[in-house]
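Input sequence (665 aa), recorded before submission:
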Amino acid sequence: MKKIFILLTILSFSAGLPFTTFAQKPATEDDFYRIVTLPIPEDLKLEVGGLAVMPDGRLGVSTRRGDVWIVSNPYMKNGTAPTYKRFASGLHESLGLAYIKGNLWATQRGEVTILKDTNGDEVADEYQAFYKFPLAGNYHEYTYGPVQLPDNDMIFTLNLGWEGKGVSLSKWRGWMLKISPEGKMTPWATGLRSPAGMGALKNGDIFYTENQGDWVGSGRMTHLEKGDFAGNPSGLRWTSEEGSPLTTKISDIPDTHEPLYEVAKRVPSIKVPAVWFPHTLMGISTADIIEDTFGGKFGPFEGQLFVGDQGHSKIMRVFLEKINGKYQGICFPFREGFQSGILRMRWGLDASMFVGMTSRGWSSTGKDEFGLQRLEWTGKTPFEMKTVKSMPDGFLIEFTQPVNKETANDLDSYKINSFTYQYHHNYGSPIINTKALKIKAIQVAEDGMSVRLAIDSLRLGYIHELRLEGVQNTEKRSLLHAFGYYTLNNINSEAPKMDVVKYAVVEKKEEHAHDMSAMPTKVGNVVSAKRVNEMPADWNGKSDQTLMIGTKPGLKFDVAKFQVKAGSKIRLVFNNNDDMLHNLVIVKPKAVDKVGQAAIGMGLDGAEKAYVPALDEVLFHTGLMQPESQETIYFIAPSTPGDYTFVCTYPGHYTLMQGVIKVTK
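Predicted structure, token format:
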């Protein structure tokens, strides 16, 4: 090692560089949290719907195909592979599993079933119905649970059906239900749409996660107390039933496109989210919630929550606080790169995290159709924002390691933006009301473990994006994840105010004015060279060919392939007759992945630029089209023959929503 150190030192000085250029490589998530893949037999389609950690170290896994498997040696001790044995079969798409009172409890679409092994052969020989749920037969009527509460009651959530929008076709669909160990059911809360993820904190408080959809502008996590309404009106159909804890009706819910926070001022039963997960900026389809209660055995985030995302095959981290008796908080990226779409997460006996996955029915960034993995802490502490707390005039940011005070005091190290979403019947929402916020003062703690920011124009009910790309630690390393999204529902007026005069910052003046004539053409809804909405005059009122392209459910265009001649004049009519936002982008051959990934990475700029990245690979495009809208574009077909992809680059859509324009001589 000494010889290597001397050699690197000589090389660095000979190149005129400090030794740290060679010694410090950029930190990665894998340095701190390692993903371990459990091998699965080739003939086993382990589309994970539920996970249950058993006291003897085995792992129960229920699948979308109706089986329950017992995995022995899931920790792969001594380097040996796990083994799989089928414990139960014939269930109706079991999307939940728990180990309670010595038995596995599986939740099917229409029933909670206790699976009993009465003769000890590790195969269930008794399927005991514990509770039955009404079903209408709609394919979208999924059922999730159980999650056991500290008082031994259990909670379950019932997915809405789907008929072009969420519908409650059978009783209590769109509800969370609480069921006692004796089988007594209590309707708990409604307004749920697709509530695949839920969890209970060690103090008994209940949270659930929601996916973007109708009445849901973006993914979010909500604290559900008895009688809460979480936003989707379909389940309100049953509020006149005996036992309903609320009386709100569907007709009480306005469809005004206002932010949900504003509507909640007029509809008291609405429970606003504790945390929003901005669509595509964090994930696209939130899943399970689990709380770190391991006292530092999983790293420096005890008491925080981890939330899976199915579409982005990743896990996010959440810090919560209570202000004025209500939850709010911030979400951060945590760990990406899982093999499939995350649906279930459970803690192992050794403080590692089991992650169960499936991608059937919806694509994910993970390349496999399903998977089972385990996440381990390596023992190293990443440089991260540990918490962000609301202050009367801004935020207090706490770190896992002391910051370099020079970078932490530099105004250019920070960017703060705020934005929100529309609350309406439409599927999802564009980002609205964006505003860059001004930092008035910066106070760095003496020990470097926290920074307090005084911010002008905090906005109640808004998501606040905090970007700290310039902040470094004392070893001159950047944050592993330099941004987070804080949902500000209440301002902490009880904390002391900051001495803004003492810690005031002075904005740097621009050295020269921008030459607006040199700025690139804005893409969004403004016509550019790649988006021509009027037939060019030199076409003399006639195109060579008209292409009609529409949409259909399941993230698909209604036509998969066209053929055009090279150099021909094309009129393309794109009709978005779907219930969600779409665009249509024509890209060069073999460029669709690059363009799609670039669209995901556009951040807050994406919406105003129609999620069309400024790449040479993009040839022509429409704007970002609202549901039931149409746009016509005109272009000259490429002169080089080949297969050119047309794709929707709205984040999360591009892997499925593709077609081909074949250009011939």
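Checked by second reader. The chain has six helices and 43 strands.
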